[in-house]
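Extended Data, panel c. Modelled sequence:
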Amino acid sequence: MGVIVAPDKRKVEQWETRTTNQITVGIVGSGGDGVIASGEILSSAAAREGLYCILTKSVGPTIRGGESSCRVRMGNNRVHSQGDKLDVLVCFSWKDFLLFRKELLLKENAVVLYPETDKLKPDELPIDKDLNPLILKVPFARLAKEEIGNVLTKNIVMLGVLAELFDLPKEGLDSAIRHRFERKGEEIIDLNLKALLAGKSWAEESVKEKLPVNFFYTTAPPKLLITGNEAIAIGALNAGCRFMAGYPITPATEVMELMAKYLPKYGGTLVQAEDEIAAIAMTVGASYAGVPSMTASSGPGISLMQEMLGAAVIAEIPIVLVNVQRVGPATGIPTKSEQADLFQAIYGSHGDNPKVVLAPCDVEDCYDIAHHAFSIAESFQIPVMILSDQFIGQRKASFPQLDPNRNPVAKRRVPEGEELIEYTRYKLTITGRSPMSYPGIKGGEYLAGGISHTEEGFPSSAHDINELMNDKRHRKLDHVLERYPLYRYYGIKGASLGLLGWGSTKGVIREAVHLCSRAGIDVVGMVPRILCPLPNDELEDWFSTLSSLVVLEMSYAGQFMMHLKSQVNLPDTTAHYARSGGALIMLEDVLNLIIEHTEETITADQKEIIDPEGIFNLNKPPKVQMYVKGHVCET
C-alpha cells in the first residue's frame, strides 16, 4: 500500500496544519515520466474551475529524453509570480532533481512524494531535512501497471494522488484529461480517467497521516489559460496582422506555431523562411505592399535581422518584431530567461535608427502590448519591437476572458485625393508622419530604398536633407509617448521607497508591494512597458517623491541601469540589484531588499505580517550596488 515516512515522527505529531488559499506544486523527472504533461493538465484543471494559476516549465539541454521539471501555483487570488518555494514536491528521479534543486526549494513542512521503487531511504534524500517535510513513498508505476495495464499512465495516477491529498480541482482534472486526450479517442480517455481514479483511491485508503498543508478554494467561472507567446499571436491577429514570416527558435517558436494555425483562417499568410534574414526581409516587403506584418525570434535571430531592421527604419516601413529573450550570449541557455537583449533592442543596428521598444510584463499583458505594437507601427510607420522573455513567453497563466474590443487599433494612413497629385511620400510634418502609399494606388508610386533620400524618396547624399530626414524620423518618438503612456504603478504614489523594474520582474515587484502594504511599510513599484522612448518626465516626477530607489533586472552587466542613467537623473543614492539570467528574481530577494532599505523603521511585527508562514529568509540581503552621484560602489 506504499510507505509513509518522515524524518522525525515526533515532529510530525506536533505539526499544525497550514491552511492556505494558494498552493505551489513542483514535479520533476526524466523524459517519459510525463512531467510537463502533468503540469499542463493540472494548470488546465485549475483554470477550468476558475482558479488563477501560473505554470512554469524547465527542461535540460537535450532535445528528447532529458530531465524536466515544472511548477504550478494556483489559488483563488491573482498570482503574479511562480512562487518561491513549494508546498508539494513530486520527484520521479532524484538524479534529475539534483539538476533543478535550486529551482525547487521547499517550504517548511512541505510534502514530498517519490516512487516506492526508489532505493533511496527517506533520510538519504537530497532535500533539507531541517525543513521537516512529510515524505510519502507512492506506488505510481505499480498502480499504473496493475490496475490500468499501462505504466505510461503513472503521471495521471500521480495527479489522482495529489487531487485526493490536497483537494485539488477534481472535476477540473476530469475535464482537462478529456480535453487533452480527445483526439486519441474514448478508449484512451477512459484509460487515463481510470488512472486518475486509481491514484485518488490509493491516497484515500493509504494516507491517514495528518497533512501539513490544507488547500482550499471556491469555484468560479472558467478562466482563459494561454502562454505569453500565444497571447502575442492572438493580440496580433486581433490587431489586424495578416502576414508573418519566421524561422523556428527557442523560446519564440510558439508565436509562429499559433499564427500558422489561425492566420489562414483570417485571410492571412504565414511563411516559414529559410533563415531569420529572409524572414524579416519578407516581413518588410509584405508591409511595403500594404499588409500589417510581423516576425518573431530570439536573441541570436534578432542579431541576424539588424541590417534589415535598419532598412525598415530609413524607408519608414511599419513592422512588428517580437524578441522572446533567452540566456545569452551565443546559444547560451535557450530554455531560460534573461533581460540582456535590452541594448540589442534599443541600440542595435548601425546609424541613428529610431524604433519603439515595448515590454510586456505578464501573459495577459502580451495581448495588450501586441495591440499597441501594431497601432504604433502602423500609425507612425516605424518598426516596433516587443521585448518579451522566456519566463513570460512560455509560461501558462490563467485570467478572465479577453475582450477583443478593449484596445482600439490605429490604422495606417493612406494618401487620397489631392495628396496623390505629385505624391510626396516622406513629406516633412510636425508629427513626422506622412501618408504611406502601397503598390496599386494610382499616383502613389514612390521609391522605398535603404539609402538617404529626399521628401519625394529620391536618393540624396546632401547633409542638410539627411539632417531633416533624421529629425523627421526621431520626431515620431515624442508623439508616441504622448499617445501611449505605457507604465504601471503598484502601491500608493508618494511612498518613500521605490522599486523599479521591467518585463517579467513585475510579478515579484507587485507581490512585494502588496505584502508590504498589508504591513504598513511605505513602498511603491513602477514598471514601464515602453522602454524606447523611455517616459523620462514621468520617471523623474516619480523619482522626486522617493527617499530611495531600488532598480531590479536580470542582466549581469546592468543594461537597464545603464539605459536609465543615459536618459534620466536618478536619485543621488540608488540601489541596483542585477543578476544573470537562468535563475529568476525571487520574491524573497525583493523583500530582503526592502527590509535592508527600511531597517531603521521596520519592526518585528511588520516582518511577521509580511511572512506569517515563515516561508522566506528575511535576514539574508542580496548583493546590491549603490549608485552614488554618478559612481558605483559595492555594498
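The longest strand covers residues 106-115. This feature is highlighted in the accompanying rendering.
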